[in-house]
Design brief:
Elements (H helix, E strand, L loop, with lengths): L1 H15 L7 H31 L5 H10 L1 H27 L3 H36 L7 H13 L1 H16 L3 H25 L4 H23 L17 H35 L2 H37 L3 H28 L1 H6 L5 H14 L6 H13 L3 H22 L8 H37 L10
Helix pairs in contact: 2-3, 2-8, 2-9, 2-11, 3-6, 3-11, 4-5, 4-7, 4-10, 4-11, 5-6, 5-7, 5-10, 6-9, 7-8, 7-9, 8-9, 10-11, 10-16, 11-12, 11-14, 11-15, 12-15, 12-17, 14-17, 15-16, 15-17, 16-17
Length: 475
């Protein structure tokens, strides 16, 4: 009887999460709301750390700066997790859309094995080269002790971070957005509880903040693993699917490399900005950028919740060859992304002082941060163009375009601007902050227009012709 109940439950889930049927806006809303909440909560991991660290008595601002210097390295670790998770989950969703469950589970199993291998390798490499990396990324003799203390503890928990972040997309891609939200929520609540205990009560300082994060990620990883190996999942993580297959690994990497490239270039730009700010403004402006990055992450999280909620719908319908539903999803995705982006844009421009004071109330930091905020976030609402186009390419497996536009914004546009603008017209640090809005306008429009011309319009023609053929390769 229990087996029959399980089968009925799984069958109900398959019907409910058949994205080729039903209202597109309602489906996206059902997936996006919990994913948005999950994204926002996920940002709290690092934000809560920085909030508690920034308010440490005496050396709060230096400690905040030190932890901010570790962000590029942590961004790289997250990039490797997304290489597997965001590279594998759309492929498994496409396979499920074709009703090929064996292939869908093989993709997920290979992604899990990749996460384990990468987790061990990154831990060892990170511990070996952390000192030169931190100085390369902008640490000074005053901030290095804080950066080193935080990063050392964080690296020891890399495997759990990889599993937690890398496997949650496979939960979401099956339509279990609320379970995915719980993966993040459980960890975030654990982190919030442990932070003040370990930082203040146990007098561990930045080490306590890092330890709280690692324990929280471990709890999240256990939760995700338990669900994916349990009876409720449509696609289950099975032992016989963990053996790596070269072709499957290649497909995961091919698609996931776009998201990884985004994180890698973000890492390089963050480190370059820290270095340039150290030269042109000192530790104060590195602190300002740490706060800006924290607030930007929170804004991106809200938009990513909407875009990630649309991704399984696009991938599933691509596998099912329902091009009409893909076009409708793109329209809903774009409108929703703009709504989220403009709300956050308005907040950053109207109350920057209050946002900065969340992390540290130092008058000098606030005085330097307010004008920097207004420059950096001046066109933040237009990020919807980049993220909508990017997620469409990723969801359809168009890896070459996704990689190109990941590189365009950060590596090709921002990097030279960060190096050149400080020396023009006496801009100094203002030039570093100005590089962001310029890149948003140029790369965002280029990405969305390309997506519209190479995906949206061709699918419309195919829909009218009612052709069962696959979308032509537009990479």
């Amino acid at each position: 009887m229990s087996r029959e109940i399980v089968r009925e439950s799984q069958q109900d889930a398959k019907v409910k999460n058949d994205f080729s049927k039903g209202s597109i806006p309602k489906t996206i809303l059902r997936l996006s709301v919990p994913m948005t909440v999950a994204q926002l909560i996920n940002i709290l991991y690092n934000m809560v750390d920085r909030m508690f660290i920034g308010h440490m008595p005496g050396d709060g601002r230096l400690a905040l700066t030190g932890v901010g210097i570790t962000m590029p390295i942590i961004t790289i670790l997250i990039g490797f997790a997304n290489l597997c998770g965001m590279g594998g989950s759309p492929l498994s969703a496409m396979a499920r859309g074709r009703d090929d469950m064996d292939e869908a589970e093989s993709i997920m199993g290979n992604a899990f094995s990749m996460l384990l291998i990468l987790g061990v390798a990154l831990t060892a490499i990170g511990l070996l080269i952390k000192r030169p990396l931190l100085y390369l990324f902008g640490a000074s003799d005053d901030t290095f002790p804080y950066a080193n203390a935080y990063l050392t503890v964080y690296l020891l928990g890399t495997i759990m971070v990889m599993i937690s972040l890398g496997m949650n997309p496979f939960i979401n891609s099956q339509g279990f957005a609320k379970i995915g939200m719980l993966t993040v929520t459980i960890g975030a609540v654990t982190n919030v509880i442990l932070d003040p205990i370990l930082i203040y009560a146990c007098h561990m300082g930045v080490r306590g903040a890092a330890l709280a994060t690692i324990i929280a990620q471990t709890v999240s990883a256990v939760w995700a693993f338990s669900f994916l190996t349990g009876k409720r999942a449509i696609m289950r993580l099975r032992l016989n699917k963990l053996r790596l297959r070269a072709k499957t690994v290649g497909r995961i990497v091919s698609l996931g490399i776009s998201n990884f490239t985004l994180h890698f270039t973000t890492c390089l730009v963050q480190s370059l900005c820290n270095k340039q700010l150290q030269i042109h403004g000192g530790d104060l402006y590195v602190s300002v950028m740490t706060v800006i990055n924290s607030i930007r992450e929170f804004g991106f999280a809200a938009i990513n919740g909407v875009t990630n909620g649309s991704s399984p719908v696009i991938s599933f319908n691509y596998g099912a060859q329902r091009y009409d539903r893909i076009r409708e999803t793109i329209r809903v995705l774009t409108i929703s992304a703009f709504g989220c982006a403009f709300i956050w844009w308005a907040l950053t421009l109207t109350i920057p002082d209050k946002l900065i004071s969340i992390f540290n109330r130092d008058p000098e930091l606030i005085a330097a941060g307010v004008p920097a905020f207004r420059i950096y976030f001046m066109v933040f609402g237009l990020t919807a163009f980049q993220l909508s186009g990017q997620v469409t390419f990723l969801s359809l497996g168009k890896s070459k375009k996704a990689i190109f536009f990941s590189m365009l914004r950060k590596a090709i546009i921002v990097t030279p601007l960060v190096l050149i603008l400080p020396h023009l017209w006496g801009l100094g640090v203002k030039g570093i902050f100005l590089s962001e809005p310029i890149s948003i306008i140029v790369s965002g429009l280029a990405c969305y227009i390309t997506m519209f011309c190479t995906v949206y319009i061709p699918m419309g023609k195919m829909m009218k012709e009612q052709s069962p053929d696959k979308l032509p390769d537009t990479q």
